């Protein structure tokens, strides 16, 4: 039962990350903090590790890791890339 819950939580985090990147739908998450999408991605990775074993686990870990890396890259560009000389 716990495995299904964590798999569902990981899938929810994946869909939330997808909507943040793809549609810029959740602007209020950015209002809460710049690290919120990164925290959602890490939460998705951790819950995928605790979820149901098999191909679903590997796919969720892969996709959540991909979105976490994209958010980290965008975060580093935003922090260090746009500094005034």
Please describe what this structure looks like.
This protein is mostly helical and 85 residues long. Helix content is 81%, strand content 0%. Helix 1 runs parallel beside helix 4. It is elongated. The model has no long low-confidence stretch (mean pLDDT 86).
User: What is the helix/strand order?
Assistant: HHHH
Q: What structural category arises from helix and sheet content?
A: mainly alpha
Write down the overall mean pLDDT: 86
The 3D shape can be described as elongated
Q: How many angstroms separate the termini?
A: 55 Å
Number of helices: 4
List how many beta strands DSSP finds.
0
Residue windows where pLDDT falls under 50 for at least 5 positions: none
- Estimate what percentage of residues fall within beta strands: under 5%
- Radius of gyration of CA atoms, rounded to a whole number: 14 Å
Largest sheet: none
Q: How helical, in percent, are the residues?
A: over 70%
SSE order and pairing:
Blueprint (H helix, E strand, L loop, with lengths): L1 H22 L3 H6 L3 H14 L5 H27 L4
Question: What labels would you give this structure?
Answer:
85 residues; mainly alpha; 4 helices; elongated
Summarize this entry quickly.
The protein is an all-alpha fold and 85 residues long. Helix content is 81%, strand content 0%.
């Amino acid at each position: 039962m716990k495995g299904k819950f964590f798999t569902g939580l990981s899938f929810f985090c994946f869909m939330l990350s997808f909507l943040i990147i793809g549609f810029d739908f959740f602007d209020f998450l950015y209002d809460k903090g710049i690290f919120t999408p990164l925290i959602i991605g890490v939460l998705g990775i951790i819950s995928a590790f605790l979820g149901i074993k098999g191909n679903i686990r590997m796919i969720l870990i892969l996709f959540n890791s991909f979105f976490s890396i994209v958010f980290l890259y965008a975060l580093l560009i935003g922090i260090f890339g746009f500094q005034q000389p």
